[in-house]
Amino acid sequence: MTSFMLFIAALISFVSSAQVWADSSEQDVAQLRRQVEELKDVVGELRGTIQAQQARLAVLEQGRGSTAPSSVSLVSAAPTPSAGGEYYTAPRGNPQMAKTGLQALNPEIGVLADIVAQTSESSQVDAEGNDKISAREVELIFGHPIDPYSRLDVTATFSDFEAASLEEAYITHWGMPAEMRAKIGRMRPKIGKASAVHRDVLETADEPLVVSQYLGAEGLTRTGVELSGFIPAPWTAVTHELTGGIMEGGVGEGGTLFGSTRRRPSFYTHLKNFWDISDVSNLEVGATYLTGSDDADSSYEVNALGLDATLIHYVTPTNKFKWQNELYVQDRKETTTFAEDGTELNVQNNPWGAYSLLDYRLSPRFGVGGRVDYVEPIGAARSSLVRQGDVGLSGYLTFYQSEFARWRLQYRHSTFAAGGDDNAVFLQGTVAIGVHKHQLQ
Predict the structure, then answer these.
(1) What's the fold here for domain 108-434?
(2) Which range (63-67, 128-132, 177-181) has the least confidence?
C-alpha cells in the first residue's frame, strides 16, 4: 500500500512537471517566433538601404563625367589615366576631378547671362544701359585641366553694347617651388575685392564708383603674369597670402588710374590676411600696391595704395552678415596740366575713393543691403568742380531663386562733383547653366 501511494505521488509530480515544462516550452517558442519576426524586419530594412545606396552610386557613376569643381577648389586623389595609358594622382592644389573614358577629354562648359533693366534721370539719356532692358553681359566659359599640374580657363563675353570680346584666357600652374601658384594670360589681377571677381559675385547690380572710375566699368582685366603663395607663419589662426604680378599698361573701360598706353607695363602686389575669429566669424584684411604710367613716356607717374577689409558673421547657419570696405589713395606726379586752349589747370594730385557695403542674408532666399560710395575724379580742374568728389547711396533687395538663378532690385542716388545728381533703378536677373568656376554666391 505504501509503495502504491509512493507511485501515485511520483506520477502526480511527473505530470505536474511535464505540464510546467510544456507551458515553458510554449513561451520559449513564442519568444523565438517574435525574435525571428524582428530579424526579418531588420533584414528588410537593410535590404532597402542597400538598394537605395546602389541606386545612388549608379547615378553618381553616370554623372561623374559631367561633374566639375564649384567655386571651392576640389582636390581629387583618385588616379586618372594619362595620355600614355599610365595612371597618376592629381597633385595637391590642382582642382581636378577624376574622369574616365572619352569624358576626360571634354572641357567643362558653362553659360552665364546678366540681364539688366535700368532707368535713370541722367542727362546722358543715350548712355550705356540707360532706360532700357538689355543683355548687359553673357559669358561663355570653358575650362579643363591640361595635365596634373596646370589648367586652362577661357571666358568669352557678348553684350548688347559692344562686340564680342575675350575677357579671360589664362593658364594656372601649380607645379611651382614652395607650393606657389602661377597664372599667365588675360585675367582679373588679384587687386582689392570688387575688381578681382566677376559681376555675378558682387552683392550689387553695379560696381562701386571707385572701382568703375579708377579701374574700369567692370573692374580691371589685363594680360600678364601673376605669382601667389602663402607666407609661412608659426601661428595658425591667421593665414597670409602674397600675390605679385606684372601686366600690360592701361586699365579697363572708362578707367582713369593709368594711361591708355599698353606697351609700358604696370606692376601690382597684394597681401591678404585671413583670420578665423570664431566658429561663426571671420575677418579678411588686405593691402594692394599698384604703379604704372599715365602717358607714353618711360616714367611711372602713378602710385596707388588700396586697403580692403571684410567681416563675415553668421548670426545663424542661414543668416549671414557681411561688411565689406575698400579704399584707394593715389600719388600722381602730374605737377602741371593744361587745357585744350593752353591754360594751366590746377588738378588734384592725390585723389582718393572708397566704399562701404553692408549685406544681410535674411534667409536662404532673401538678402538686403546698402552701399555708400565716394570718389574724387582724376585730371579735373578744381575750379570746374562744384564739390570735391562724387557721392553715391545705394539700397537693394536680392532674391536667390537657387544657386544658379538670382534676382535683384536696386536703387542708387548719385551726386556728381561736376554738378547735378541722378536717381537710377536697376532690375537685374543673373542665371547660370552648365559648369563654371564662379557660380552664383
Answers:
(1) Porin (2.40.160)
(2) 63-67
